[in-house]
Amino acid sequence: MEELPIIPRGIRFQAGFITPEHEAELMHIFRNELDWPTTKKFASRKSLHYGYTFDYKTFGIDPNIPYKPFPEWLQPLIPRTAQGGRDPDQVCLQYYPPGAGIPPHVDTHSAYDELYALSLGSAVMMQFRHTRAREDSKAKEGGVEETPEEGRAKDEREIVDVDLPPRSMMEMSGDSRLHWEHGIKKRKKDVLADGTVRMRGDRWSITYRWLREGGQCECGDERLCDTAQRRIGVEREFRWKQQQPQGSMREERQQEGEREGLGGIEDKGVLISRQVGSTGVDQGHHQFENGNILLSPL
Ligand SMILES: O=C(O)CCC(=O)C(=O)O
Ligand SMILES: [Fe+2]
Known about the structure:
298 residues; seven-stranded mixed sheet; globular; binds fe (ii) ion
């Protein structure tokens, strides 16, 4: 696995994890042999889970849901570079029709340690984003109290697009795992760094997760870490996760996610965006407010 020479640090890639022929066989199985959950909504993501189910109430394995053995097709797709080659505790196969996405999120810190994802079918742009309070906030300048609303308006958000080519295995470690959120925009096409518009097709991803020993994360990131948040008495944004395993995010969260991001009501501040991938790097600073992106010179 080669680490991408970008910020966020910690994204490792292995191109060509499987052959195109193997990929075609898998897509045949995914299309014809699996029992996908049915949804009324057009173009929505669907998930199937294997292995253990995590219990967000006890922060351990849910003893009421039996271990779901890995199907035969999954065996050769397990990355063996993580955790001394041990099987992952949880595997999630997801299907994204064109137009589907996944809201920006960080996979629960306390529950999971290492994360890998294999991409199959259509390429897609994944967005990593990082938010931090701006240095020049009023509170810091003169000790004047500011409302959380005023504070958020000064947040600085950095967005990096990372292209996920089919058949590539990605590992999220370090900053990219803990201090940046990741997500996939709900849209039918992606614009590459060189301006090319690329239509999306059917995509499948397989996410591999290993449970974190002890169930506590020590990163201390109060914005993104559930352990850090629990220690300071914050439970916000966490309740939604308590009923379902990671990766099958509930509808509310999905709708919430649609309101977030570039088109969201929360968007106010300075956005620094970069795009990376096979086509190179493009960098620009934009000001954004209420979903309108205003281009400004660097
Ligand atoms: O589809 C992907 O590549 C990643 C999905 C993801 O972030 C997740 O299941 O937590
Ligand atoms: Fe994720």
